[in-house]
Specification:
five-stranded mixed β-sheet; alpha+beta; about 475 residues; BirA Bifunctional Protein, domain 2; ligase (chains A, B); Rossmann fold; 17 helices; homodimer; cytoplasm (chains A, B)
């Protein structure tokens, strides 16, 4: 006998949680499609040579390699540097780059794609860290160029997704890498790598406190003046409180150098269009401390946080990059995109008790069975319900009605259809609404209409998120 | 520069095909849920020790093993028999067995689950063979016992799925392993393994012809009498032509031995309930040649074929088994289930030119842009459409209107919304319906209603498959 268990670092769910997870995936997909993004799926295995274009780096050390039974032990048979030929994707960005470069002449640019698949990282085993997790990405890829206007659609998508996910108030925080670069250059931090190091120190503000960060920036390797440090500290604390305030914060930066002016102009255009699309100003803000991956993003950058749960960190991040696929094609492919790490988000929401509605089944109706002789009748009623679009389960083995009700209750099935002797004789059905704790008997041919009315009322009560 | 390419044996699709594929996944999932099956997803990686419970076998030789960078080269560090600790699932049945055994006390039985994920097999590279492919499975698992009545729901699910997939006439072919066993025992083929070998030979009827098969069954290792061979040949040719004929074919088998009687009684009950659920009799038939995996299935077995494309083979197969998870638990867990190998089916349908509607985008409306100054107006109109539930793309960089129309046409986007100087001045929009080659100008606030009417008309024309 082998002990049934999953490997460490994966999230496997029981059906009620899986239903909740699937609903989140559906909401994300529906909203990605709403904004005109097209579906793409790529194989989980990529050629190692194609996947591992960058040398070194944290990610590369966490790659999972794949070998078929036949290839095992034949290390000499492996690809470059003795690595196995195949590896599991560790994100959806490298596969996107490969996909766009490979199919460049078959795609229409700007190319908008969404991709929602699992990725793999050999992370250190740790609570809340996953070795297999869903990423839900959108990107718009231009050929040669891509207007900054596309950067304005991204917050609109984020807003649509998280409004419908209904997990509480959220703020889409925006910044611009050019603006940052311009600002830091003006403070005498001209070197890109040094900027990165300064930002990394500044990022420790919350954890280590202001004194620690000031000391570090004044010390060896940085040697910044007190004045510069003051400026930097003031800069990274900027958060806008409204649309008008965001514009005012940009104005307050003054003329500055070229990079700063470019960044300000870009953010200004993005902000105006975000408003034109209809994103409420309470849902977006400037935040000059946001940098994201410094070697990758070049313009607008986004992070999204839950207002009441800042400790969860960013639940949706991304930005603008210069060139997606320089390892695979000479074409210049700038893009802008975001990613939602759904496995981690789901885990965090569950930990925080924020997963409402997880107890509602995908099954909407349970047709009970009181006598084996009634089964054909039960099946026929269930077929009516299914044809009308209701997800319906039939109790296939007759048993005590009480047990059948208990099952429906535990499973989160809303409508229980009772077909007893009387009902069958009279051509009626008895419906018990488990949620409203209501019960009524109607003609069989009225059943579908009655359940539709009940559901419509429930949806009306719930508001638009039906 | 690295050549961007996928590994051999995977199917990667361009967006129009991916949309068609996704629609098939959606149809399958919707119908699985319609019958009360609950979603389950399992990790792609399982512990090798858990996954590879059977020794030897074709499948085991095709397993992909997984190792993180750190584990590479540390063969001594590996699991039992020197194999790496992790492996990719090669089907959804073993993970189901592990899942049910692991979560036995948290699940309600009979447990109905559906699972639609990719599986991995190190197949020989060959056209139409995939190393990564989707399986879409349903199973009902009982604890200790599971009534044969559940076997009757399976054809109803198959019928619902393939009716909505709308890929042509199909027949669900049914048989019963007990009936087969009883029949073969009566022919003097009492040994289970020998039955399997006879069936394997009979399975070559189409490919090698009757003479070849007769000769083999009379020859060494089988030594069957001419009479027995006649009986077997007649038996495996049985196909029913209607519900009544199916029952008559069962009657025609006579009293027989106990196994035969049991098999006949089960099939009879299944047939009656399949009819009660409302599956049209043209969609199911008896086929006594169908055996499926002989060491696994013990009762009802199913195969589904496209009437006009028999060469595609079975597009949905499965059956009843005695015990799902004997490697992981002492509990007896009988079940019944089916699997659709969607990647292969999609590939075959595409090869046969049967993928209708693949040119219809997920994007329903394209809002064009004639002048950069109009963009905020365009975005606002698009937001109206999205709020009303239309998947809408906005042309973000103004260009020639002709090019924008051409893009919509190629992309399969049905409605093109034109917002020119006149429209903006008059508060109107011009809608071009690319499918009906129709064009009309209406007030902006009438836009959502007008598109709804157009879509409703299209759906009414298409029938229920909207």
């Amino acid at each position: 006998m082998i002990k049934p268990r999953t490997p460490p670092g994966v999230m496997e769910l029981l059906p009620p949680d899986q239903i909740a997870f699937q609903r989140m995936l559906d909401v994300i997909r529906r909203n990605y499609e709403r904004f005109g993004f097209l579906p793409v799926e790529t194989p989980v295995m990529e050629l190692s040579e194609v996947l591992l274009t960058k040398s070194g780096g944290e990610t590369e050390r966490q790659v999972y390699f794949v070998q078929s039974t036949g290839a095992l032990g034949k290390a000499a048979d492996a690809g470059q540097e003795g690595l196995p030929e195949l590896a599991l994707r560790f994100d959806l960005t490298v596969p996107l780059a490969r996909y766009v470069a490979e199919h460049e002449h078959e795609l229409a640019f700007p190319f908008r794609r969404y991709q929602m698949q699992r990725v793999y990282r050999g992370e250190r085993a740790q609570r809340g860290r996953f070795r297999e997790f869903y990423q839900c990405d959108i990107d718009v890829i231009g050929k040669d160029s891509l207007s900054v206007r596309f950067d304005a659609e991204i917050p609109a998508v984020i807003h649509a997704v998280f409004s419908e996910l209904d997990i509480g108030a959220f703020t889409i925080q925006m910044n611009n890498r050019k603006l940052m670069r311009g600002f830091f250059e003006a403070q005498g931090v001209a070197d890109g790598e040094l900027q990165a190091l300064v930002l990394r120190e500044v990022d420790k503000l919350d954890k280590r406190g202001e004194d620690y960060v000031r000391e570090t920036l004044a010390g060896e390797g940085f040697g910044l003046s007190a004045e510069s440090i003051d400026s930097i500290m003031a800069f990274v604390k900027v958060r806008s409180t409204s649309h008008a305030d965001a514009l005012a914060q940009l104005d307050a930066l003054g003329e500055g150098n070229e990079a700063l002016r470019e960044g300000v102009a870009e953010l200004r255009e993005v902000l105006e269009l975000v408003r034109a699309i209809g994103v409420p100003e309470s849902n977006y803000a400037l935040n000059f401390s946001i940098a994201r991956g410094l070697d990758y993003y070049t313009g607008t950058v986004y992070e999204t946080t839950l207002d009441d749960y800042p400790q969860i960190g960013s639940i949706c991040s991304g930005g603008r990059y210069e060139n997606l696929a320089s390892h695979y094609t000479k074409s210049k492919l700038p893009g802008v995109g975001i990613s939602i790490g759904l496995t981690r988000l789901f885990w965090q929401l569950r930990e925080a008790g924020l997963l409402a509605g997880a107890s509602v089944s995908t099954v909407q109706a349970l047709v009970t069975q009181m006598d084996a002789a009634h089964l054909p009748h039960c099946l026929s009623v269930a077929s009516d319900l299914r044809r009308a679009g209701f997800n319906t389960e039939v109790v296939m083995e007759a048993g005590k009605l009480g047990r059948q009700f208990k099952y429906a209750d535990r499973a989160g099935i809303r409508f229980v259809i009772v077909l007893g002797e009387d009902e069958i004789a009279n051509g009626t059905v008895t419906v018990k609404d488990m949620r409203r704790e209501d019960q009524f008997t109607i003609n069989r041919h009225e059943l579908v209409g009655a359940l539709r009315v009940e559901l419509a009322q429930a949806e009306a009560l719930q508001g638009k998120h039906a």
